[in-house]
Amino acid sequence: MKKLYICLISFFVGTIAHTQICNSPRFTEELVFSLQDIYIDSNVIFGHATNWQNADETLSLNMAFPQLSVDTMQKRPMVLLIHGGGFVSGDKDDFNTEAYLFARRGFVAATIDYRLGMSCFSDSLSYDKAVYRAMQDANAAMRFMISKSDSLRIDTNWVFIGGGSAGAGTCLSMIYLSQGEFNTAHPTIQPLLGDLNNSTNNLINTFTVKGVFNNWGGVARDVFEALEAVPTISFHGDSDMTVPVDSSYGSSCVNPPYIYGSNIIHEKLTQWGICSQTIIKPGGGHGIYNNTQAATNFRIGKASCFFKSIMCGMCYSDYSTDSIPADCSTTLSINDKQNQLDYSIYPNPAQTVLYLKTNQSLVNTTVYIYDLSGKTQQFTFEKNEISVQELSNGVYFLEIIDNNKTYRYRFVKN
Fold first, then answer.
1. Pairing of strands 380-382, 385-387
2. Distance between CA 344 and CA 356 in Å, rounded?
3. Number of other residues whose CB lies within 10 A of the CB of residue 242
4. What is the pLDDT of residues 104-141, one digit of tens each?
């Protein structure tokens, strides 16, 4: 069962960056770098801070990225990953597999530690302080990575975040929960713990997050606003009892906030014209697609394609209850791939004309264009030129029927 919504985002993409990123085999469902090509740097210290027991804590991260000696791309997008555990357990190693799989697709990836711990029995604001510390440390880790952008060849124009459960909630809070909003709800926390954006280390680097990889997380209803919204890909089980897929009151020692799960996040984002891809597993509980490396690879493939669509200005919304693997490494999308060399289409994305290249005669060829809902579109086809000028911006399928063979291609009108 699948619902699809088009909401292409319009922004300028530099010619060089577009060529390097969009015409590259990277950042898709395919692994483009070998095991030996990936450099891993573990336990890199990014800050120090006082934990919930008033002890100094050293915070570190793990990095994974294609080795500089084998990677020809001068600037690579980055993904910062935040583990779950209800703000009381877990560590950065929990997301090592995700970081490694992103790196093998061409990203610079990092997975971070943050301060854990709370006790509602001794402090009624203990939970909210734990959330605040996690946000402080995640912001500090991001500043640290941005400070290393030259040496790590990070493209600071394309910075993404992702996490699981509490880590996903931290990611969403980084986008939607400001210092002022936190102060309004809990005015005593900032004077005690310091600012959200300049603690844990002394770095002053700034960053803008372009997309979120949300794994079974949620966001507080009262801070979730259209003006701050960014493209988001979400994975959630519809039987999740920890973070409900729709909405419920969240966790806190007192006065828990009302939380939107992935279904409501998707609904709101699409209403606001922000692209959102959401995969809901029927009957799935907390932590779906996380039990094997193949399941994790499924999520990373989908997220990589989503992030690439953002970078290439082709982001679209999609809601699915089917575990359909990502397929953005080629313009081919459906079937008969062994025969697709009979035809090729270009350019993709197309603005006015889509050219059909073939070694076959076009005399007995029938061509159709469908939108994502399956509706046939009007167009003109003469010789090998298909006029798409009248189509609205979006994602389409080109179907070619030739001697009882059917060929299907996905293309973007932009």
1. antiparallel
2. 6
3. 15
4. 999 999 999 999 999 999 999 999 999 999 999 999 99
Superfamily of domain 337-413: Immunoglobulins (2.60.40.10)
- CA nearest to 286, candidates 325, 243, 349, 341: 243
Q: How many CB atoms lie within 10 A of CB 327?
A: 18
Are the beta carbons of 73 and 103 closer than 8 angstroms? Answer: no
Tokens linked to 382 = 């003469």
Q: Which two tokens stand for residue 147?
A: 């400070």
Find residue 389's DSSP bridge partners. none
- Among residues 105, 67, 250, which one has the least CA distance to residue 172? 250
Rounded distance between C-alpha atoms, residue 389 and residue 151, angstroms: 44
3-state SS assignment for residue 375: coil
pTM summary value = 0.79
Contact 83, 92 (CB under 8 A): yes
For helices 166-176 and 126-147, give the axis angle rounded to 10 degrees: 70
Q: DSSP string spanning 193-252?
A: H--SSS-SS-------EEEEEEES--EEGGG--GGG---EEEEEETT-SSS-SSEEE---
Mean pLDDT over the full length of the chain? 89
Residue 13 has pLDDT above 50, yes or no: no
**Do 31 and 105 form a contact (C-beta atoms < 8 A)?**
yes
- 3-state secondary structure (DSSP) of residue 352: coil
- Domain parsing of the chain, residue ranges: 2-320, 337-413
Report the alpha-carbon distance of residue 194 to residue 132 in Å, rounded: 10
Fold of the 2-320 domain? Rossmann fold (3.40.50)
Is the sign of the CA dihedral 82, 88, 92, 98 positive or negative? negative
Q: How many CB atoms are closer than 10 A to CB 45?
A: 12
Evaluate whether 48 touches 58 at the Cβ level (below 8 Å).
yes
Coil, helix or strand for 59? strand
